[in-house]
């Protein structure tokens, strides 16, 4: 049976990893190390993780390309939370004899819920009003109605469908588009299929719910954003590179769109000098879509189960190169 000696749990930003799984169940000779902060660049990642034979990665917070995997000589099991991880070169791991295991999926409902939090925060200027009340001001902004407004959902998968259904419950006119939109599914849930151009040009709120891939990277560029209404709002809780961030920043500064609610960015965590930190008419969160107690309970308990199964000689939820996709 494989011997488990050193286990690393990465990127425990909230310091809660030990609460969501009974790590005392690890083999007696296994030592657990939890890293609460990002490890940094490639050389720092390699230096920190070189001693470990088991690594638990939280989603895509730390990348494992071939250049990292090839320099971790002790690594034998790499666990990712979620059923796939686009930041792991699974083929390179397999070539090195490293098992890559995943966990059950989580975060569809929580990401949809956060999406609506961002929509409401923008529509009613909740962050600004919160600050105003604390500073002694009263009613500084005028909100906008969602009832009767048009909501454009780009991508009607698990998250997008949930977002669309809430929009319909609010009395919004909901339309949808994606490259391979299932029009029958859209109509069945009350969503009108439209072209990308019509969606961008006619919707007061546009929200993105796509997986990141070569096809969707840069899907919304400068010309697309130019179609949007001056008062419209753009929400992204999927992945930063789906948007042309420079074009979105320019549109916000120019006032050609009304605002943006963002949970994801091309570079995460945001650098100290990121222009997003001072961008106007924005509500920003720190990739919190999947960060809930329910999701963490699934992720960490399954990660521990993966490790114990590997130690017993029967790896479970093994990810193959063919399964590797970009998940929201």
From the alpha-carbon coordinates, what is the Rg to the nearest angstrom? 21 Å
Strand order of the largest sheet: 8-7-6-9-10-11-12
As a percent range, the share of strand residues is 5-15%
CATH architectural category of the largest domain? 3-Layer(aba) Sandwich
Global structural class? alpha/beta
General form: elongated
In DSSP terms (H or I, runs of 4 or more residues), the helix count works out at: 11
Find the CATH topology of the largest domain.
Answer: Rossmann fold
- How would a textbook summarize the main sheet? 7 strands, parallel
Brief summary of the model shown:
By secondary structure, the protein is of the alpha/beta class. The protein has helices spanning 42-49, 66-69, 90-95, 108-123, 126-134, 158-169, 183-188, 196-202, 222-225, 245-254, 293-311; strands spanning 6-9, 31-34, 54-57, 77-80, 99-101, 150-154, 173-177, 192-193, 205-208, 233-236, 259-262, 282-284. The protein has two domains: 6-106 and 292-323, 3-Layer(aba) Sandwich (Rossmann fold); 108-284, 3-Layer(aba) Sandwich (Rossmann fold), CATH 3.40.50.
Molecular structure report:
By secondary structure, the protein is an alpha/beta fold. The chain folds into two domains: about 5-105 and about 290-325, NAD(P)-binding Rossmann-like Domain (Rossmann fold), CATH 3.40.50.720; about 110-285, 3-Layer(aba) Sandwich (Rossmann fold), CATH 3.40.50.720. Helix content is about 30%, strand content about 15%. It contains eleven helices and twelve strands. The chain has helices at about 40-50, 65-70, 90-95, 110-125, 125-135, 160-170, 185-190, 195-200, 220-225, 245-255, 295-310, and strands at about 5-10, 30-35, 55, 75-80, 100, 150-155, 175, 190-195, 205-210, 235, 260, 280-285. The chain has a seven-stranded parallel β-sheet, with helices on both faces. A five-stranded parallel β-sheet has the order 2-1-3-4-5. Helix 7 (about 185-190) links the parallel strand 7 and strand 8 (about 190-195). The longest helix is centred in the last third of the chain and has 19 residues, at about 295-310. The model has no long low-confidence stretch (mean pLDDT about 95).
């Amino acid at each position: 049976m494989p011997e488990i000696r050193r286990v690393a749990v990465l990127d425990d930003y909230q310091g809660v990893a030990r609460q969501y799984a009974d790590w005392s169940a690890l083999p007696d000779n296994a030592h657990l190390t939890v890293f609460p902060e990002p490890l940094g660049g490639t050389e720092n990642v390699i230096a920190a993780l070189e001693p470990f034979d088991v690594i638990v990665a939280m989603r895509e917070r730390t990348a494992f390309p071939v250049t990292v995997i090839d320099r971790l000589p002790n690594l034998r099991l790499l666990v990712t939370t979620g059923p796939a991880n686009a930041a792991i070169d699974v083929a390179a791991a397999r070539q090195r004899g490293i098992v890559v295991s995943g966990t059950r999926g989580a975060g569809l409902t929580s990401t949809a819920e956060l999406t609506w939090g961002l929509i409401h925060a923008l529509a009613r200027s909740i962050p600004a009003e919160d600050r105003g009340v604390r500073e002694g001001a009263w009613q500084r902004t005028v909100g906008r109605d969602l009832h009767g407004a048009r909501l454009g959902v780009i991508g009607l998968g698990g998250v997008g469908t949930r977002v669309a259904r809430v929009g319909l419950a609010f009395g919004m006119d909901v339309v949808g588009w994606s490259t391979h939109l299932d029009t029958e599914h859209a109509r069945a849930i009350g969503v009108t299929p439209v072209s990308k151009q019509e969606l961008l040009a006619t919707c007061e709120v546009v929200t993105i719910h796509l997986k990141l891939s070569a096809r969707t990277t840069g899907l919304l560029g400068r010309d697309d954003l130019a179609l949007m209404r001056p008062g419209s709002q753009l929400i992204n809780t999927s992945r930063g590179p789906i948007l042309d961030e420079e074009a979105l920043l320019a549109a916000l500064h120019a006032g050609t769109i009304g605002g943006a609610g963002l949970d994801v960015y091309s570079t995460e965590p945001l650098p100290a000098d990121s222009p997003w930190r001072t961008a106007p008419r924005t509500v920003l969160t720190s990739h919190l879509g999947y960060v809930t107690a329910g999701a963490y309970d699934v992720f960490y308990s399954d990660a521990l189960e993966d490790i114990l199964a590997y130690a017993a000689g029967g790896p479970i939820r093994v990810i193959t190169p063919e399964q590797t996709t970009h998940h929201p």
